[in-house]
Each structure stands twice: as structure tokens, then as C-alpha cells.
Amino acid sequence: MRERFIGKIKQFFSSEQQEEKQVAIPKQKSSETIKARVSYQYPKNDSFRFPMPIDQPTVGDMERETIRRDRRYHERQIEAPVPSTKRPFKPSVVASPIHGFQSYEHDNEDLLDKPAFLRRDRESRIKDRLQNAEVDNQQDNRQSEPAVDVDLNELISEKRKSQITSDMPLLKEKVQHTETEPDDKLEHQEPVISTKDTKQEQTSRIQEKMRPYNVIMTPSDKRRLREKKIQQVSTEKRELPSLHLLNDQPTGLNQDQAWIDDQAKKLTETLAEFNVNAQVVNVMQGPAVTRFEIKPEMGVKVSKIRNLSDDIKLNMAAKDIRIEAPIPGKNAVGIEIPNKVASPVSLHEIFATDQFKEAKSPLTIGLGLDIAGRPVITNINKMPHGLIAGATGSGKSVCINTILTSIIFKATPREVRLLLIDPKMVELASYNDIPHLVSPVITDVKAATQALKWAVEEMEERYQKFVQTGARDINRYNQKMLEQNNPEGKMPYIVIVIDELADLMMVAPQDVEDSISRIAQKARACGIHLILATQRPSVDVITGLIKANIPTRIAFSVASQIDSRTIIDHAGAERLLGKGDMLFVENGARHPLRVQGAYVSDEEIDRITADARKREQVNYLFEQEDLLEKIEQEESEDELYEDVVAFVLDHNSASTSLLQRRFKIGYNRAARLIDTLEYNGIISGQNGSKPRTVLISKEDYHS
């Protein structure tokens, strides 16, 4: 047994020596001639066997091959590491085709913001350096390359060694991936606690590594990457109310075709009685009125049809009619007759339209339906300021509620802030404590005046920021904040709503008019918008300066044609039906559009505001009491007080007439300053016709 084992070992080593001898090929001299010899063997009697016996491997070769295969298998099993426990996956480092294993710039903000000519100069300098370095390397390689006579045996042995060493890591990696362990070994691992903070950190790290570092980016790729980054910052989670907070949509318009045909026949007969030859060419039925489009024959004056309004109303037994002669863009005259039963327009019907849903502006508002039943959607940013006027009960407050509800549905508190002024104290009380408010609903008239002054100061501060950043308007400023990865620096829009302008104009007409005029003239670009409402559209309330700076007007039912011209510069509002029937004149439009306003109930407002309060907390910028305290300080402390004290102490005398002449002020202000000096103990009280005595000296006052 032992001898047989020793014989096998000798045979093993002798086979390796024979193999090495077979591999070693002696060098042949080039002078010797090599002759090729070929042996042929043909079958004689038996069939041709294939493969031939000379080509079949010998027994010794087969044994050596099995020995080598077994040895490689055992070596592979020994070298494969077996992990005791499962370990988390660790990605291997992959070389970048551009940077290799070198580190690359993580902060690519400067590279994206650099101009193109600077990037081209930098690229040209880098290319020149690389070319110079390549030339130097080629010269060094030529100098350092000696002529070496390579032995064939050494090359073959080195090749075999490199193949063996290169195969080993691949085998290791393959075994690591294929081997798995049972789940029982997972008990030895420490528990890992996952929290929300760690998830957020991981997601933020992933977002930071969004830039591909192993490819060359073209300028268009960099531009798309910049736009994608801005879009990721801007698309924050917006929690907006749902339509289920509103009442259900009504069934639709009740079109009575028999009534329409009867009215068209009566209208044609009435015009024929007054020798007006015309035909009804089209009928459009809206929620409240129906418009009959009449095409008169050649030679009929339009003014003749307009003068027949009272006669047409009498013959058709209508409450009121409105004649639009001619209809803009058509060769027809429109006669609007009230419906037998008016159909209500719900806010759900407006908000459910694609036109309102697809609007991207946070200042999108829905007003109602026009005379053809189409939704009327506008944008406060295009207004940019609005005036709402009409008689009591015509629908002004409902229109304001519709506008505010549209803003709450469309915008978050970070996008739009509201400043509500309600001298009536009850109209806008439902909107208290919602997160969109700048301050609680202001009900005091003096505080309202101070709030308008605050809006003027805010406007000036915003323009100062625009100058510093080089922005022209609020949209460009917010875009620059996003490009700088500073979404907190974005400016929200501010919408100022005044429910009753006439009450403010009675208390402080000059201050209110000055503030409103300044805001209306300049505040559009900085994102501050005004919406004024009044029920007394007289010239002393809607002054020429206010009217000139507010291009968008909404007129409800008024008493006279003069009031209609005061509001919209056109007649026609005196013939409206009330209950939301309005004439809407948009910025840039020459002709008014008749709209039936959407109705929002108190229950809907309560549900919407309650939902807004649940979503976010209130963040007031100031309170109404702060404004009142500021007013008291301004009234108690005159800005000339210190100058008056210095003047009185220098001249050692004080009187009302002396202060009037010296400081060029009125009697009332001078008398208040004298009373303040007396109250503070600087001068004595009034003693008949004798002058007042100065009680302290300059040194005592400054001590």
C-alpha cells in the first residue's frame, strides 16, 4: 500500500516535469531549414474509424488532466471565504470613464452659473496642458525603452501565472454572490432602528448625487439639469382643499324651448309694429337671462332699436331688458330678456371645470357663468386691482366671498397672504384665524388706515429687494430665489380686500386716498393687489385718482345710469336684475361682459375655513391692537416736539402764535404742542392775558 502511494507521488511529480519540458520550446536558428513531413494512413479492409488512434489521448494525459482539475477544484474550495453572518451589501468602487478613481467636484453650482466663454477658456487651457503632458510622456518613453530580447519560455510562464491570478478574484466574487445562509443566523445581528430623520437624510443625499459624474455634460444637458433642480425645489407638497367641501352641483339649465319660441315670435311682432324689419338669427340662454340676436334689414338704424327698449319691455311683459347694439364682432343686435325661472350657479360648478383646475396661477378666481353658460375664470395678477360696486343686496359680499374662496382653494399660505378690512364687522368674520391672513380681520377704521400705510411700507421694502437682486417683478425675484436654492426667500402675493370703502373715506379721506393711490400705481410689480367694494359709487368715494388706477371693475345692480357710468364708464348696470347679476369689465376690455355670479353659502364658507385651519397654523405679522397703539403714539408724540422744547428754552417764552410763526404750522397743532409742554411741566399754565412762564432751564431738561 505504502509503495503504491509513493509510486503515485513519483508519477505525479514526473508528469509535471514532463509537462514543463513539453512547454519549453528551444530556440531555433534562423539558418536551419524546416522541412514538413506528413504521414497518411488509409483504411484497408475494415471501416474507417474516427477519431484515429493516433489522435486519441493517452491514459497518462487523461490522468494528468483529472489531477489538475481536482487540484483546481480543491484550491477553489479552500480559498472561498465563508462568512459567519450575513453582512449588508456594500457597493464596490467603479472607476469613472472621465475621472477614473479621482474625486470630482460635488458642488456644481458655480460651474452651472459660469458664462460660456469662461468655461471654453478653462476647457482650452486644460486641453493644452493634457497635450503637453502627452508629448512629454512620449519623449520619456522613447528614451527609456531599451532593446530587450524576450525569451519565449518566460513569456509563456508569465502568461500562465497572470491567468491563474486573474481567475481567482472572479471565483471569489462568484462564490460570495451565490452562497446564502439560513435566516436563523440573522438573530446574531444588532437591531436597526429606522427613523424618519434618517430616511430624509438618505433622500437628501440621493438628491445631491443626481448629477452624473462619469459623463461629459453638454451645455444643453446642464441647462436641463438646472431647470430640473428648480422644478424639484418649486414642486413642494401643496395641500389644497377638496371639492367635497362645497355643495353638490345643480342639475343644469332649465331650457324651455316652447317659452323661447314664444318670446322670439313676440319680439319679431313687436319690432314689426314699429316698422323695424328684423329677424331672430340666434338665441343664447344663460342662467338668468336669454339673449335674442336680431339681424335688422338694410337701412334700419341701430339707434331706432335702442330707443324701443321700453316698448319691447311692455309688449313682452318682462321685468327689465337690456339692449346691446350692436354685439361686438357680430352684425346683430342683442336683446337680453330675463328667464321665467333663474337657475342658480354654484361654486362647485365653477371649480369643477378644466379651465379652473388647469390654471397654474395661485391668484386664479372663478366669478360665474356668462350669458352663454360658459365659466368666467380670471386672474388677479392680470387685473391687477379691482373695484366692486352696487346697491345693497345686489351681491357684492357674495362676490367677495367667491374671490376669497377661490384663493383659498388655489393657493397655500406661502403663496398668497390676505389683508381683510371689514368696517361692517360681520361680513368677513368667518375668515378669522385662517393661515392665509396677514393679521386678524381689521374692523376699526383707524386701524384700517394704519394697515394701508403698512402696505405702502411693505411695497417700498419689496422694491428695495428687487433693486438688490436685479429683478423686475415678483415672479423674476422668486425664480432667482429658487435658482439660489433659497425657497424660504420667496415673496408671497398680498391681496388687500376692503369691504366698504365709503366708511373709510368718511373718517380719513386724505390718508386713505393717498395710500390706495400709491398702492394702485406701483404695487402691481411687487405682488400687492387691491380689491375695493362699496355700495355708494359716488364721486367723493370713487375719486378720479382711484378710478384711474383701478382698471378692472365689476358693477352690480345700481339705482341710476349716473352710478353705472361712475363705476364702469358705461350705461347698463341700472338694468341688471340683482342677486348676482353683474357687468364685468376686465383690464383692457372696452365692452362689459354680463355674468351671473356664483353663489357660496355660509355653510360652505365655514367648512372651507375650518379645513384651512386644520391644515396649518396661523402666523400673523401684526395684530389690530398693535396698529391702534402705533396710532396713539403718533398722536401723543409730535415730531416737532423736541424742536419746540429747544426753541422755548432758548427764548424763555412760549405762546401759540409764536409757535405758529416759527414752525409754520396751524393753530390746532400749535395749541396741542403748548398743552403737551404744560402737561410735561416745562411751562406754566394759562394765567389770563399774561404770558406763560418757562419753569425749567436747558441744563435741567438735559440732566
TrEMBL record:
Keywords carried by this UniProt record: ATP-binding, Cell cycle, Cell division, Chromosome partition, DNA-binding, Nucleotide-binding
Record's protein name: Putative cell division protein FtsK
Region Disordered: start-end pairs: 45-64, 175-204
Keyword Transcription included in the entry's annotation: no
All copies of domain FtsK, residue ranges: 373-565
Pfam families found in the cross-reference section: FtsK_alpha (PF17854), FtsK_gamma (PF09397), FtsK_SpoIIIE (PF01580)
Top-level taxon: Bacteria
Organism: Amphibacillus xylanus (strain ATCC 51415 / DSM 6626 / JCM 7361 / LMG 17667 / NBRC 15112 / Ep01)
High-level lineage: Bacteria, Bacillati, Bacillota, Bacilli, Bacillales
Family indicated by similarity: Belongs to the FtsK/SpoIIIE/SftA family.
A GO BP annotation: cell division
